[in-house]
Design goal:
With 139 residues, the chain is an alpha/beta fold. The chain has one domain: NAD(P)-binding Rossmann-like Domain (Rossmann fold). Helix content is 49%, strand content 14%. It contains four helices and four strands; from the N terminus they run βαβαβαβα. It has a four-stranded parallel β-sheet, with helices on both faces. Helix 1 links the parallel strand 1 and strand 2. It is globular. The model has no long low-confidence stretch (mean pLDDT 95). GO terms for molecular function: oxidoreductase activity. Belongs to the short-chain dehydrogenases/reductases (SDR) family. This is SDR family NAD(P)-dependent oxidoreductase. InterPro entries: NAD(P)-bd_dom_sf, SDR_fam.
Amino acid sequence: MKFDFNEKTAIVTGAASGIGAAIAHDLARFGAKVVLADMDEAGMSKVADEIGAAGGIALTQKTDTSVAADVEGLVAFAAAQTGALHLLVNNAGIGGPANLVGEYPLDGWQQVIDVNLTGVFHGLRYGIPEMVKAGGGRS
């Protein structure tokens, strides 16, 4: 299968390490300009440097996906810096505390829901209109 993301911009959330970093590397390798989003600025900088050293383009934006304004700002940043948004990888996620359900802290539950569920909604809510402007996405 041939992937060609030349002239495309992709946002990857949770891009400072793990699966998100691997996705960002692959998208850049296939030609995408990648906007890395994460709370871990040092991790994002490392990934961006690696992508740059391999000949790719990577920008970083500290983002808490559970905060709508952060994600709205991320999408605006990506579009302003690169001209358009074509792909959004909603990868950010957390595991939360390792407790039995009957002992699970309510604030821990809410944090997991805010990042893993609401964060994905925020990405879609603000990302889809920009992807539609670029000729893709669906609303």
